Amino acid sequence: MATAASWSCEPCSQRKKKTEASKWCTDCEESMCQTCTDCHLSMKATKRHHIIDLQVAHSCHSNPLTGIQFCEKHEGHPFEYFCKDHNAICCNECMSTKLHRSCKIHTIKTCSKNVKTSQNFKDVETEIDHAIETLTSISEDRIANTTSIKGNVEDVKKSIKRFKSNILQHLDTLEVAIFQDLDRMQEEMSIKLNDEKDQAETDKEVVSVYKKQIQFISNHGSDKQAFLFMHKLKMALHNLTNQQIGKIARMRALSIEHKIPEELLSCLSLGSVVPKDNLCTEKFKLHVEDFKFYQNFHLHKKVDMTAIDKQAFITGMAVSGDKLLLCNCDWNHHMPQVLVFKKSGEYLANIEVKGAPWDIAVLPRTDQAVVVLPNTNSIQFIDTLKQVSGREIKMAGSDEKRGIAATDDKIFVGGMDRIVYILDHDGNLMSTIFSRGEKFCYLLSVSNCDLVYSDFSSIHRIKLDGSEVYSYKSPNLRNPKKIATDQLGNLYVAGKDSHNIHRITPDGTFLDIVLTEVNGIHHPRAMYFDNSSNMLFISNQSGKELLIFNCT
């Protein structure tokens, strides 16, 4: 890579003149000599541009000022606007799309004024410090645990020797064998701990780069660049924090103990060495005020749905504002309807629809929802504010449609024909995806526009090209139904015939079973996580009961 001293003046190069550059315009992203710099600052269009020494421009790792002003989606178009509704930075091309027509829009010039002294900018710097502190703690803990295992091994060996003195001398050979097992286990644990320590160090290096970049842009960048970089960095820090919470939730404090056989005379070994681990999440204080790892689920209320409809069969649910919308999918009901409740569990009203509603999805940042009607092979829009139904749209194909999900600009409908139909918010068919799994039962849209669906036996995550990211299946999860997601992206799956709720990570790894029959779970079907109120809603007893849990 060229050093700062070897850079040529770009305006001079355009005139086929070779001059050594000494300055850098962060707005034009162009190197200039002193003469061209003086001209640059004298022109009306560029006199307010931000000029720094070329040496300074190339002193920061991965110069954060380079390329930050231009839209990744629309090449060559500079960022000019900030959409508060979507928390998105936009260029003129972005603003021409339907997505932002009714949004609250501000110019970046307005938003970035004095941003480097704002609390948001300071918060990002604090987040970096928190991340470095946490990753340092993880690394130090892994090192300390590795050391403690060595002492732990010595204690176990002494225990084995004491036990050995009470049994026959011919067990000496078994002593050697168990020591080998112990040493092997120590090595495996040490490798695992070192891997976790190395990963923490790697992540720490990434965040340290963020630290240098934010300090650099604070000292040398413009307000606009600081605002743009801050926005980009907040997303990166959020993803990093999300990853670390999942890792910490699975992190274990490893140790070894010696198990002594109860029947000494019939013993054919010196026992066994087994790993011990304990969750060590509390040791690490991640700065996640807005994102919680739920550990406790307290039953707030139980609602008997048959008191409202004797044939109640709640198969789908969603939250819109302060209202809970329940799909009462009684196939033989003469008046199919969506029931409207307060989130606290009080019945408010019902909305009549054209067919038995199986599931429902709310269109983000709107007062619109859409239900899927299997028995009429259609979907229907609902105005959640006025509590009235709207247009019905017939779907392609003859198979029943069950799963439904929505994003900022798309509606996804999953069918028993293993096809996902992608519609725009007006209900127009855009494209289709063919899945390799079984028939769709329920559908959920997650980050990166991936889809997660249940197919009566397992959970699958797929991309919009139909390729599978992972599948999740467990003998303790029978007949999986509705899927919900929390703020951290963890998935919650209702096991109808296993009478439990599984929690898995965004990458499909089992975390725990959060609710079982002990908590009153029996034939759960529909489920929804309302992250704004930290409440989990579950359709229980095959849709005849509503359970409301407070999550902490």
* Low-confidence residue ranges: 1-5
Strand elements, count: 32
Instruction: Give the full name of the CATH homologous superfamily of the largest domain.
Output: TolB, C-terminal domain
Structural class: alpha+beta
Name of the level-1 CATH class of the largest domain:
Mainly Beta
Average pLDDT over all residues = 86
Number of domains: 4
- What is the chains' assembly state? single chain
Gyration radius (Cα, Å) is: 30 Å
> What is the beta-strand fraction?
25-35%
- Characterize the main sheet: 4 strands, antiparallel
Keywords: Metal-binding, Zinc, Zinc-finger
GO molecular function, one term: zinc ion binding
Domain B box-type: 12-54, 66-111
Protein name: B box-type domain-containing protein
Give an account of the 3D structure:
With 552 residues, the protein is α+β, with helices and mostly antiparallel strands. It folds into 4 domains: 54 residues, Double Stranded RNA Binding Domain (2-Layer Sandwich); 47 residues, Double Stranded RNA Binding Domain (2-Layer Sandwich), CATH 3.30.160; 167 residues, no CATH class; 179 residues, Neuraminidase, CATH 2.120.10. Helix content is 27%, strand content 30%. It is built from 8 helices and 32 strands. The protein has a 4-stranded antiparallel sheet with strand order 9-32-31-30, with no helix packed on it. It has a 4-stranded antiparallel sheet with strand order 10-11-12-13, with no helix packed on it. It has a 4-stranded antiparallel sheet with strand order 14-15-16-17, with no helix packed on it. Strand 4 and strand 5 form a beta hairpin. Helix 6 runs antiparallel to helix 7, helix 6 packs parallel to helix 8 and helix 7 runs antiparallel to helix 8. The chain is flat and about 90 Å long. It starts with 9 loop residues before the first helix and ends with a strand.
